[in-house]
């Protein structure tokens, strides 16, 4: 017997899961959030829920917003349960569930007038985003905002009918400016180095295409704090929905599963105020960059490193990949010999101890994180998580045997079949182009490195070209398992 999750049924849910100690009537909106996916509901929404449960800052509730078809699906499911979410936290020794209520509404995707009106409300003092690494219209190779992207060009031509997140944000800022309402702070919660600066470039860059004076006003008046976010949060499927129903008796259309660990490091630049997130574990620092480098290179880079050998060996779950001795040893060698040595020092942090924590988190069998999730969207993730370490080592004159192997594994994966012959299904906006290049690269590895929008200057390095070509040739001739062993034996670069 299950209980359909709603405000009216919280007392029934209380027997097996934690529930908010505040009512919906206690909350007022202070944040509009674009991109209400699993990570947001397991991270920012949880921090705010914790704060509200302390009786603090209940005028900072969330209103959701979005522009994608998937946003509509999420909105409909959450609206049917009064925007409540069951969050199941799991580590190696403990599992627990609680319901969060920090979101109080979700605007209809595509309803531009309603979204702009909400953005223009004086109550809204922060606009936050989790729109994925690929949502910022960045040229992958250069890391610079791309004003020629068709979606950006369309919004520049029609600023009163925006279709992108940044076009909507600009429309809200324009209305506030016209009414003399101070601008909200714009806070990215995506895994991008300098995510505040990247967001600033997108917002200001779009404005400059149609109104340079407005762009100047944004540069002078709008805050874009950088932040580092961290919590492993797998996708929700029938497995997760079934577990919540069977173990907690809750009928939740889209629960969130995540690890117990969470981290949020932020620059304290919020001119219109902010919730007291430091009370619930958020770390405010003058410079987020060292923490970003650490997390993006070691954790996200580590995920990218193990995804493709695991997929080629037909491994489904991440913890199963970590249980494969070759993959675990490959990750450890890569991190300690090539990634960690080019990461700048992080205050009060031992990078090798941080890696041990990452290794433990990756090995958590309760999370159910999938290799397919890690492998998706490589055309956006490789230039952000792997290739920066490669570029740094090349600039220093260091070897890149392991990092070149990561790129070669990605190429081999994109050829479309695992070592056993199983067909691989891609989830990447550039999958057709990548697949074609990967097939050509079997005979000529330079065909893959010719993807200049991804590899940029790295592909011009003779050393990288040699290492990549040798690794890819070895993968095709010997297979993934034997190639990993050759690397571990220190013979791949010979």
TrEMBL record:
Source species, domain of life:
Bacteria
Q: Where is the Mannitol dehydrogenase N-terminal domain?
A: 30-278
A Pfam family (short name) is Mannitol_dh_C
Cite the Gene3D superfamilies for this sequence: N-(1-d-carboxylethyl)-l-norvaline Dehydrogenase, domain 2, NAD(P)-binding Rossmann-like Domain
Which EC class is the enzyme in?
Answer: oxidoreductase
Q: Which GO terms describe its molecular function?
A: mannitol 2-dehydrogenase activity; mannitol dehydrogenase activity
Name any Gene Ontology BP term.
mannitol metabolic process
Alphabetic keyword roster: NAD, Oxidoreductase
Q: Domain Mannitol dehydrogenase C-terminal spans what residues? A: 287-476
- List its EC numbers: 1.1.1.67
Q: What is this protein called?
A: Mannitol 2-dehydrogenase
Q: Which organism is it from?
A: Sinorhizobium medicae
Q: Which gene encodes it?
A: mtlK
